From TrEMBL:
Stored Gene3D superfamilies: Periplasmic binding protein-like II
Compartment(s) where it occurs, according to its Swiss-Prot or TrEMBL record: Periplasm
Family according to the record: Belongs to the bacterial solute-binding protein SsuA/TauA family.
Record organism: Dactylosporangium salmoneum
Keywords in alphabetical order: Signal
PANTHER family the record matches: ALIPHATIC SULFONATES-BINDING PROTEIN-RELATED, TAURINE-BINDING PERIPLASMIC PROTEIN
UniProt entry tagged with the keyword Signal: yes
Name of the protein this chain belongs to: ABC transporter substrate-binding protein
Length: 373
């Protein structure tokens, strides 16, 4: 059993910092200019990336929030645990949090509920540098595996991956924190580690920097396991903000649908909303191509992979089997002491309303949209 990584005290400390950054005001759901309702959304990343492009920049730039009568304000928190405390406190309407983190928060008495999936397949995997003699999980014995940090989901995934394959993570391998991006690449290139555990978008980033990988198959536990999901305060589901949660998720899913069909336009909207995404080199064709590759990698775990939109399922739906796997993962990694009741974590009663929009109109808008470049 792993040491539980999501201590409530730490999350509360993080909450104090975020609440300070947000001004501490419970202003989500208040009137705004133009007859709109102002709502706060807290994202679990301190810097914008593909999640923020698809779920915030696109609906903002396409007017999907306004169509729902909302003025959406983006706040930031450092990780799922902190973000969950923010929405539980009433300082934000919703967040995108790990399902396992939501289970841990619920077990600790935090009144939050997942209302719809975002990542519909598990994004973490173990990459092996091209040319390595590691061909199967068994070959990892005696090797060094890099993770982002020992407190990250990267470490939890690695340990679970090893346990599922009959490898003792404390005795049979060495797990080393190597960060991500250039730090991780340096660790791989120098031979400090023999393999690395990241999620799809980060591997794509390394591949753009010249690294080449083969990937080990994940154990069956991770097949179809959900990761990031929309989460709200439990009070929201029975209170006046219920309709706001439906409207926000609906607009966000419109953005995700649009991004899947026209990722080039989504990147353009991301750069307009978050100019810092351009980096020091500015908004160049090269930078747009890099962001496009990252967005597409993220969407391999967040959107349907078929181009036949008529076969796409309802946005946000989570099955009991998917939630059961997430619960087993949460228990095995020590994030919770026991498997929670599905109803205590996921409320699917909003799914039908969330999907009550003109899908054909969004599809047409995405296909007709022409980028400035």
């Amino acid at each position: 059993m792993f040491r539980r990584p999501f201590a409530l005290a730490a999350a509360l400390s993080a909450l104090a910092l975020v609440a300070s950054a947000c001004g501490g005001a419970k202003d989500s759901g208040t009137p705004a200019a133009g007859g709109l309702t102002s709502v706060n959304y807290v994202t679990t990343a301190t810097v914008p990336g593909s999640t923020q492009i698809a779920l915030y920049a696109v609906p903002k730039q396409m007017g999907f929030f306004k169509e729902e009568g909302l003025e959406a304000n983006l706040k930031t928190a450092n990780g799922s645990s902190a973000a969950l405390q923010v929405i539980a406190s009433g300082d934000a309407l919703a967040t995108n949090a790990e399902v396992a983190s939501t289970m841990a928060a619920v077990e600790q008495g935090v009144q939050v509920r997942t209302i719809g999936s975002i990542n519909t397949s598990f994004p973490w995997k173990i990459g092996i540098p091209a040319g390595s003699n590691i061909k199967s999980p068994a070959d990892l014995k005696g090797k060094k595996i890099g993770v982002i940090s020992l407190a990250s989901g990267s470490n939890l995934f690695t340990r679970s991956f090893l346990n599922e394959n009959g490898i003792n993570p404390d005795k049979d391998v060495k797990i080393l924190p190597v960060g991500q991006g250039t730090q991780a690449k340096a660790a791989l290139d120098s031979g400090q580690v023999d393999a690395i555990a990241l999620y799809a978008e980060l591997f794509s980033q390394l591949e753009q920097a010249g690294s080449k990988f083969t990937y080990l198959d994940n154990p069956s536990l991770f097949d179809g396991m959900p990761s990031i999901s929309f989460t709200v305060s439990a009070r929201t589901l029975s209170g006046k903000d219920r309709e706001l949660a439906v409207k926000y998720a609906r607009a966000a899913y419109k953005g995700l649908m649009f991004a899947r069909l026209n990722p080039e336009a989504a990147v353009e909207m991301g750069l307009k909303t978050f100019p810092e995404l351009a980096g020091t080199g500015g908004d160049t064709p090269k930078r747009r191509a890099e962001l496009l590759t990252l967005l597409k990698a993220w969407m391999t775990t967040s959107t349907p992979q078929t181009d036949d939109t008529s076969a796409w399922p309802a946005w946000g739906q989570l099955s009991d089997d998917q939630l059961k796997k997430a619960a087993q993962w949460a228990v095995s990694t020590g994030q919770v002491k026991k498997e929670p009741n599905v109803a205590d974590v996921f409320d699917g009663s909003l799914i039908k309303e969330i999907n009550d929009f003109d899908h054909d109109a969004v599809i047409k808008a995405a296909k007709d949209y022409k980028t400035a470049g």
